[in-house]
Design brief:
Order of helices and strands: EHEHEEHHEHHEH
Radius of gyration: 16 Å
CATH topology of the largest domain: Glutaredoxin
Distance between the termini: 30 Å
Largest sheet: 4 strands, mixed
Helix content: 40-55%
Number of helices: 7
CATH architecture of the largest domain: 3-Layer(aba) Sandwich
Strand order of the largest sheet: 2-1-3-4
CATH class of the largest domain: Alpha Beta
Length: about 140
């Protein structure tokens, strides 16, 4: 998974850089100053901004988010759950899910993802155990 971090000189960028390093996540640092207009056009108003792209998972957020960095470290270490496994409740419970995977899993069980997000927030990553518990497993 390729991780890019758009940073500035603020403490939140330094904290995010340190947390990614501490978790062993390889990442590229990009100066937000040079990319200011493109970041604004993408709706990014807060730095740092993190983008992680892999063959079957894309994740992004802005701001210092140690909770998401921890989940990203697990996702990078174990890889994303295969689409075919989104109905396997044991595999889901042990995985870190992207928002898109959480939506697919919830829909596969014929529930409304909006109800899940209303009670668990709109996040780019979720513990599979949280989704499983919400589904009643």
């Amino acid at each position: 998974m390729q991780v890019s971090l758009y940073t500035d000189a603020q403490i939140t960028s330094r904290l995010t850089t340190a947390a990614l390093t501490r978790h062993g996540i390889a990442f590229n640092t990009i100066s937000a100053k040079a990319q200011r207009e493109s970041l604004r056009a993408a709706g990014i108003g807060e730095l740092p901004a993190l983008y992680a792209n892999g063959p079957s998972a894309r994740v992004s957020w802005s701001g210092y988010r140690p909770d998401l960095i921890t989940l990203l470290a697990e996702l990078v270490a174990h890889g994303p759950l295969a689409s075919a496994d989104l109905t396997d409740r044991d595999k889901v419970a042990r995985a870190v899910l992207t928002r898109e995977q959480a939506v697919a899993c919830i829909r596969a069980h014929q529930f409304n993802p909006a109800d899940f997000f209303a009670s668990h927030g709109n996040s780019p990553l979720y513990r599979g155990s949280v989704v499983s518990h919400w589904l009643g497993y």
